[in-house]
Amino acid sequence: MRRYIAFIIKYRVFVLLATIGVTALLLAQLTSLKVIIDPDSTLPQDHPYIVTGTTIEKTFGNKFTVVIGITAKNGDIFQAPLLTKVQHITSALQRSPLVVKSNISSLSARKSKNIEGTEEGMNVKPLMERIPSTPEEMEQLRLALNRNPVFENLLVSKDRKTTQIVAEFKKSEGGFQEIKKTVDAIVAAERDDTVEIDSAGITLFLALLEQFSARMAFLFPLALLVIGLIHYEAFRTVQALILPLVTALFSVAWAMGFLGLMGEPFDVFNSSTPILILAIAAGHAVQILKRYYEEFAALKLEFPEMSARQLSERAVLDSLSKVGPVMVVACTVASLGFFSLMVFDIKSIRTFGIFTGAGVLSALILELSFIPALRAMLPPPGAKELAREHAESFWDRLTMRFYRLAMFERKKVYSVVGFLIVLLSLGSYWLRIDNSQKAYFYGNIPTRVEDERLNQKMAGTNPSYILIRGDSEDAIKRPEVLHFMEDLQREVEKDPNIGKTLSMVDFLKKMNQAMNADKPEFYAVPESQELVAQYLLLYSNSGEPGDFDSYVDYNYQTAVITAFAKSDSSAFMDRMTQSILAFSAAHKPAGIELSVGGGSLGGVALNEIMIKEKVLNILQIIGAVFLVSSLVFRSLLAGLLIIVPLIAAVFVNFGIMGLLGIPLQIATALVSAMAVGIGADYGIYMSYRMREELRTGKTEEKAIEKAFNSAGKAAIFVSTAVAGGFGLLMLSWGFMIHIWMGFLIATAMLVSSVTALTLFPALIFSIRPKFIFENRSSR
Amino acid sequence: MKSSLVSTFALVSLTLGSSLATAANPSVEDIVQKSFIAGKVADSVSDSTFRLINGNGQERVRETKGQSKLIKGTLDNMRLVTFLSPSDVKGTKTLLIEHTGQDDDMWVYLPALKKVRRLVSSNKKDSFVGTDFSYGDVIGHRVEEWTHKLLREEKVDGKDTWVIESTPKTKEVGENTGYSKRIGWIEKESKVALRGESYDLNNQLLKKFKADKIEKVDPANDKWQPMVIEAENVQTNHKTIIEFKNYKANQGVSDELFTSRSLEKQ
Q1: Do the interacting molecules here have an ipTM over 0.85?
Q2: Residues in chain A closer than 8 A to B232 (CB atoms)
Q3: Contact by Cβ (8 Å): A693, A779
Q4: Under 8 Å between Cβ of B134 and B96
Q5: Are residues B236 and A553, on separate chains, in Cβ contact within 8 Å?
Q6: Residue A342: exposed, middle, or buried by beta-carbon count in 10 A (0-12, 13-18, 19+)?
Q7: E strands along chain B, which residues?
Q8: Listed range (A41-45, A375-379, B215-219) with the worst mean pLDDT
Q9: Are A537 and B127 within 8 A, CB to CB?
């Protein structure tokens, strides 16, 4: 190690140039880095719900829907000006290049057909070809809606005060915000004091997600500033303000470039990951910086005759050769932990793993090459800076407090810290696993308010789908299949959260009724497959070929039942799914397969994966840390002790989430991975330092005090700085993801550093493991 | 008296004008009118295959038998389509009787119900037996209801055509047909439109039409009929291809066939 560092110092100019070259090269890769805003990247693509969802989207469309509701402030919707607004919005949507033209439903959309029985047969025509201009025409529209229950709560509310327009959008280059802007502009043109217009649906929430995530553009520099300032406050040197951040920024840039090189896309859900890399990289940088100052001061005392420049070079050499190996260990542990996330089924988490793992390795490389080279060229610390470094500050008093606690008041540590950890961990009992995209945002954000209102008035803005697949063409025309679908719809509708279900059956029943002079008793499934086929052919004489494309596939082999839910909570969706599957198992006819998926069910799939894989993943990282630590210290006990702060951080993290009602979902789950990733560092640095000091032959108390003052203090600096930097995220008004992450990461940092400085050393003194205390006598 | 004189004069000059135009270069209205009647044979029988293809490339095939006859002294057709396959719609028949100036009559016989039902069809934009052709597309758009403009002359598949743009004269015509504009590539020889485009009421391209294998089916009366016609809705990506086989004109098809009562027979 020493020879390597000496080499770096000798060829520092070359190292600097090489680093800049590599950075430029990796930055050039950024051009090939694809930034995607794809909700699929957060979903486990092999999960049955997602597979079904993908099939449904391919066959029936309806992936990115936007719902627009118009409510009359006075009276009902049967007023020409209000209906004109419906027509305007529908046409405007039809003109937009972002909209799937064949998939707009509204009172004035061509595919909304009035199926009506007449003396002589069936009459099928668009519900509202033109705006009714006479009271009679208006009455006809009202009657048509009364006669076609299929439109209730979809096109018109039960109280007839609200009407709804649903449009499907294509994925757009400009992301979901472009869709939202289009919708906002269309809606704004029609708003006045006679109506209330609400727009909602998951697509608009994805737009919000994009919009709020973009706040990172200013939160990130702000976090940098805060971390830099806290470091400055701790060290009182300009180097401390700048160098750790240089390492951190370069690491982020390298990791991004690496992603580009790997052809991995960068998604919006990873927009807060750079802050994590920043935190880890800064953490290591501070450990080394702290040691550098210590060595510099010690060398200055030892060799007063040496020039400051020589002293600085020597200090770089000494500090790195002592801390470098520790850093290699800590970074290996962390990056292995992160890289292990690559086994995840969720693209977003895989990206996270690779990104963070690469970031940690970059920090390691930089701290072992670029930074010593640079430091050797920078002016060495002056007397003033050294004096500052030595002056007793708040940080020293805090460190000493921890030292005395761990050293002399172990009972207190076990009872207070241990008790707190256990108590907070118990909160995990109330931990909810729930993934509601809507709950990412404050309840008073306009989109949420409007979504909530529409959920109250209409069927619900959260569609989920039941796919019915037959063993042959035309299976869906079989009466027993249609009966099964109908019974299933009634079953699903029993849940108060379900506002409506919709399928081909609803239309066939209406056709049957119409062909039998609109008699109510014929609002039922037609009695033979021939009849169904012939009704459909008859219908096609006035309808359009694509009228039923959203309900049944072309060969009538596959049909879909859409269940409109008023909530997108995955916990609720999960309950609903279980009851559907149970009903199906008991009643489905032979030759029929049923599966659920798509829409809001993505959240359920995500949850199942989260429970299974997240636990697995945490165990995996903990296992990796245990293994590597045991190997490095050649002691299983060492491995066990090192993972104590980490386990504490994870459990307290889950406990606090349970107590505060923060749900475990994609963003908050990443925090636990972060916590375990960072959590081991402090313990590793502390162990090495304690062992090193003990081997110098100092008294035990002095040696440990020294370790606390060095590695311990650095841990306090870093965890405070990172907690402060991340804590800033809590300022992201309205966006729960940032707020939760900010809070949880700050907490995790503090818990793991406090544990590493109390419980961890206390355990070491109680157990006195060989890996710390051996070889002590030999010195 | 005075007004009728004026109108007589106007009529004469119009007729004269149009015949003058024919001599040198036919007027646009003339071309469109000739195109309108190009395929109207006295009667016909044919077998046809309807291929309906959706945006995903899935296909539904229906075999039908078709019979048609012009109502004496008019350009109104009576059309009977009998479905032969698939089996669950076998025997289903649709009868369409056109009435210039009023609503057309449409009857459907459903063998599963063993009943004839009347369809109330008040507009021309509805789908013709579930295809991408509307009734308007099948019957033909009334020449006098549209304003026609010759855009240019062009070759299509090596054949000379006039490219003519037609826009509805009144709002009602537009609403009734669902089109705000039509463009036709009318072949100079047969007067059959080889290509066509129609635009929806939002002025967006809605459908593209194609006619192929144009055959002279009634040489005496200069009648032409494409053996393959295709309509594609570019907004839904749904497509219909109709292929005629055994098309024969002037077969002495009986008027008896085209009554709602005869639908229930056999």
Answers
A1: no
A2: none
A3: no
A4: no
A5: no
A6: middle
A7: 43-53, 59-70, 77-85, 93-97, 105-110, 115-119, 146-156, 159-168, 181-187, 193-199, 205-218, 223-233, 238-249
A8: A41-45
A9: no
A698 located within any domain: yes
**Total of domains in chain A:** 1
pLDDT reading at A389 higher than 80: no
Interval A335-365: pLDDT, tens: 877 887 787 777 777 888 888 899 999 999 9
Residues of chain B with a CB closer than 8 angstroms to some CB in chain A: 52, 54, 56, 58-60, 83, 86, 88-89, 92, 94, 106, 108, 110-113, 117-123, 126-132, 175, 200, 202, 204, 233, 235-238, 240
| Position A627, amino acid | L
Cα–Cα distances (Å) from A39 to A42, A44, A741, in that order, read 6, 11, 19
DSSP β-ladder status, B59-70 and B43-53: antiparallel
For the four alpha carbons of A316, A717, A637 and A771, in that order, the dihedral sign comes to positive
- What is the rounded distance in angstroms from the CA atom of residue A368 to the CA atom of residue A380? 18
Average pLDDT estimate for A144-159: 92
CA distance A354 to A405: 39
Cβ burial B193-203 (10 Å sphere, 16+ → b, else e): bbbbbbbbbee
B113/A534 Cβ within 8 A = yes
Distances (CA, A) of A336 to A12, A347, A352, A624: 29, 18, 13, 7
Expressed as residue numbers, the domain containing A247 is: 210-430+604-773
Look at residue A240 and tell me if it is in a domain.
yes
Please give the C-alpha separations between residue A66 and each of A502, A601, A602, B38, B237, in angstroms, as whole numbers: 18, 17, 17, 47, 22
Burial class of residue A3 in the structure, from the number of CB atoms within 10 Å of its CB (0-12 exposed, 13-18 middle, 19+ buried): exposed
Instruction: Indicate the pairing of strand B181-187 with strand B159-168.
Output: antiparallel
Q: What angle separates helix A273-302 from helix A666-695, to the nearest 10 degrees?
A: 10
Residue B47 is predicted with a pLDDT of 95
Task: State the burial class of residue A384 (Cβ atoms within 10 Å of its Cβ: 0-12, 13-18, 19+).
Answer: exposed
A529-582 tens-digit pLDDT: 999 998 888 888 777 777 888 888 888 999 999 999 998 887 888 888 899 999
Beta-carbon separation of B175 and A129 below 8 A: yes
Residue A93: CB atoms within 10 A of its CB come to 25
Helix axes A347-368, A238-262, angle to 10 degrees: 130
CB A701: neighbour CB atoms within 10 A?
A: 11
- The DSSP secondary-structure symbol of A155 reads T
Q: What is the pLDDT of residue A603?
A: 67
Shortest Cα distance, chain B CAs vs residue A119, angstroms: 9
Residue A340 token pair: 């292990």
Backbone angles phi, psi at A550, to 5 degrees: -80, -5
How far is A672 from B66, CA to CA, in rounded Å?
71
Taking the model in full, what pTM does it have?
A: 0.79
The amino acid that residue B37 corresponds to is I
Nearest to B247 by CA among B91, B107, B39: B39
CATH level 3 topology of B28-263: outer membrane lipoprotein receptor (LolB), chain A (2.50.20)
Q: Select the residue from B80, B120, B237 to test the A interface by mutation, using most A Cβ atoms within 10 A.
A: B120
> What value does the mean pLDDT of chain A take?
86
Strand partners, B212: B228
Cα separation, B147 vs A211, in Å, equals: 50
Do B117 and A91 count as a contact with CB atoms less than 8 A apart?
no
Site of tokens 């060492």: A638
Residues of A in contact with B117 (CB under 8 A): 120-122, 515, 538
> Which of B52, B82, B113, B237 should one mutate to test binding to chain A, selecting the residue with the greatest count of A CBs within 10 A?
B113
Pairwise CB contact (< 8 Å): B59 & A541: no
More confident residue, A606 or A672: A672
